[in-house]
Design a protein that fits this description.
By secondary structure, the chain is of the alpha+beta class. The protein has two domains: about 220 residues, P-loop containing nucleotide triphosphate hydrolases (Rossmann fold); about 130 residues, OB fold (Dihydrolipoamide Acetyltransferase, E2P), CATH 2.40.50. The chain is built from ten helices and 20 strands. Strand 17 and strand 18 form a beta hairpin. The longest helix is centred in the middle third of the chain and has 18 residues.
């Protein structure tokens, strides 16, 4: 069975010779929710526009359900695209906007009306059918854009930061609706965002891009807990990253020699003995203890050598989270962030001497 979407060695080079996308490879199963995530200018929107047909590709092939679509114009591709600004027609009613794609296809009027009625009802827009779009709220306009994209029954729905114009609370509410809608419809969604929380919440898999290249393709949990590259380790979450050289590797254990001592974690992305490497520890996986709790040796036994010492410089509560900045005794600093239930204690206040420790299975060792 063919994948819903395939990108094979896809590349895009602008007329001035600057590469926008380099050797992009991706297979998407039917009904998957795929997120493209990365900083501004990394090539994620360009890739989405190439799938939609709004950008020509320089090299490679794009296939939808096994059919090569490189040379097929946008209006003939089995895709719909929703833009960040929704691109609604202000002079049209909600019904007119939603029906527009069906009008272009030339469907019989009765069929058009039936399809529009069904999608308006599904998205809770039926009561607004005769309203002009410019008089509606951001959340309502977002639903109209979704309805217009879905009414033509595309194989793949492409979304270019469609929640970017919404305020924080509405954005979270629409995220939940969007994921539920996608699951109910079973349509493949490809979603571009620069917001980590959005990608981690919505996506079945996330494609992290940097400077036109794919850094990692993983499930949200795998991406968060097992980064494969230094860029992903720095870009996703709040990680403590320590440089060193790989001194030993086993099936599920890698030992890194650092200026702080030897640390142990789970190997990822095939680091090589003797080569520069990094150990990456998610903030939530770090445990803090006052120095009065016991000796470093005792903690090292419990945490298999993964212990640092330092002094708390700040402890700030931000809603349900607490952020702790620690100056390390051997030089440098780390910032920890977790739920207040874990870190907000009377013995963890500024100027306190502390031990920082983590279990090996919670850390990842990657090639530098």
């Amino acid at each position: 069975m063919a994948f819903d979407l395939q990108l094979k060695n896809v590349g895009k080079v602008y007329d001035n010779g600057a590469p926008a996308v380099v050797d992009f490879n991706l297979n998407v199963e039917k009904g998957e929710f795929i997120g493209f995530l990365g900083p501004s200018g990394c090539g994620k929107t360009t890739t989405l526009r190439m799938i939609a047909g709004f950008e020509d590709i320089t090299s490679g092939d794009i296939l939808i359900r096994g059919r090569r679509i490189n040379d097929i114009p946008p209006e003939r591709r089995p895709t719909s695209m929703i833009f960040q600004n929704y691109a609604l027609f202000p002079h049209m009613t909600v019904r007119g906007n939603v029906r527009y794609g069906l009008d272009v296809k030339g469907l019989p009027k009765a069929e058009r009306d039936a399809k529009v009625d069904r999608i308006l009802d599904k998205l809770g827009l039926f009561g607004l059918a005769n309203s002009l779009t410019h008089k509606l709220s951001g959340g309502q306009r977002q639903r109209i854009a979704l309805a217009r994209g879905l009414v033509v029954e595309p194989d793949i729905l492409l979304l270019d930061e469609p929640l970017g114009a919404l305020d924080a609370n509405l954005r979270k509410a629409i995220q939940a609706e969007l994921k539920l809608l996608q699951r109910n419809l079973g349509i493949t969604f490809v979603f571009v965002t620069h917001a980590q929380s959005e990608a981690l919440t919505l996506s079945d898999r996330i494609v992290v891009m940097n400077q036109g290249r794919i850094e990692q393709i993983s499930s949200p949990l795998q991406l968060y807990t097992r980064p494969q590259t230094p860029f992903v380790a720095q870009f996703i979450g709040r990680n403590t990253i320590i440089d060193g050289a790989l001194s030993k590797i086993e099936a599920d254990r890698a030992t890194l020699s650092t200026r702080f001592g030897a640390f142990v974690g789970a190997p990822n992305n095939r680091p090589e003995i003797g080569r520069a490497a990094k150990i990456v520890i998610p903030s939530e996986s770090l445990d803090i203890f006052p120095s009065t709790r016991g000796s470093r040796e005792a903690l090292a036994t419990e945490y298999q050598g993964n212990v640092l010492s330092g002094v708390i410089e700040r402890a700030d509560v931000v809603g349900h989270l607490v952020q702790i900045g620690i100056s390390l005794s051997e030089g440098g600093s780390v910032t920890l962030e977790a739920h207040v239930d874990k870190y907000q204690r009377e013995d963890l206040v500024p100027s306190s001497n502390v031990w920082i420790a983590w279990q090996p299975h919670n850390a990842t060792v990657i090639a530098a």
